[in-house]
Amino acid sequence: MSRIPLNESVMVTIVVPTFNRCNDLARCLDSLVQQTYDNFEILVVDNGSTDDTPKLLRKYPVRVIKDLTRNLTHVFNIGWRNAPGQIVAWINDDAEATPSWIESIVLEFEHHPNASAVGGPTLAMRKQSIHELHEMSHRSKFLTPFGRVYEAVIAENGLFEIGRLFRSGAYSIGGSLPLSTKLKEPVFVDMLTITNMAIRKEILRDLGGFDESFLFNHADGDLFVRMRKSGRLLLFSPKVVVFHHVNPTGAVRNARNLGRDQAYFYLKDFDHEKTPNSFPLLLNALFFNIYWIFEAMRKGNPRALNGILGFASGVMAYYGKSHGPS
User: Fold this and answer.
1) Which residues contact 272 (CB under 8 A, 6 or more apart)?
2) What pLDDT is recorded for position 9?
3) Which residues contact 132 (CB under 8 A, 6 or more apart)?
4) Is the CB of residue 300 less than 8 Å from the CB of residue 249?
5) For 5, how many CA atoms within 13 A lie in the half-sphere containing its CB?
6) Less CB within 10 Å around the terminal CB: N or C of the chain?
7) Structural domains in the chain?
8) Minimal CA–CA distance to 85: which of 118, 142, 28, 40?
9) How far is 271 from 279, CA to CA, in rounded Å?
């Protein structure tokens, strides 16, 4: 790939949180050592892996920090607080960067000095749950009414748009689809994803980083809400591409954890006392919990009902403790 002239004095730290995903991590690191931009370091935050991850990491030019705290948001904070780079980028251990990923990030920051964060297409290699449900709703007479209400009210007829956060607390999924690579130019958005994003370190410092009240999910969404409330801009560029292989295992996919952090996100970041927002927000919360009943029946797995228990625990957690950065 031909080089794009740019100022390589900008140091980038790439943070890769990991736990017991040795094979995924190998693919991720293989993609990072092939970057076309030179001035970066790879910082792997190992959350106490018991598989072959420590052995694997000795094969790559990476810096490793071990932290056993079972709170993924804490791991995110460990990453940026130990980053020497002016720009801190995150990528999941089950994701794979394109060769020009970091180069494109640096270029977008240069071309858009008013941007506080940069991200781009995070192409899901397996369908997200919401995308799968959307397709199922078009094939099932039983699900069709639910699908129509979700798309019209909860997703405000914008489900496949890029980087939108709706009043209901739901978000659009266009940034995970190939259509997002077809944009002719970057756009400012409501949301990015920590699977594929970079933030100026000074912004993280100013905002206090990620709120560790979120355990495994939505800490990035909460940060984006706070960034936008403080006037910061989030840029989505079609050139900043990673492939997300979506490992279905791990704490971030656990129904109880998903439910817990989802409830916390709704309560902290959305003004549910305002009438224009309250109905779609409450409806989304209802649909979210109905989803776990549907999953338990569809797959014959009662463990899916832990999503409802998690949601209840998130409500109790929110009202039972002081809140993090705001």
Assistant:
1) 266, 278, 281, 282
2) 86
3) none
4) no
5) 0
6) N
7) 12-125+173-247 (3.90.550.10), 129-168+254-320 (no CATH)
8) 40
9) 11
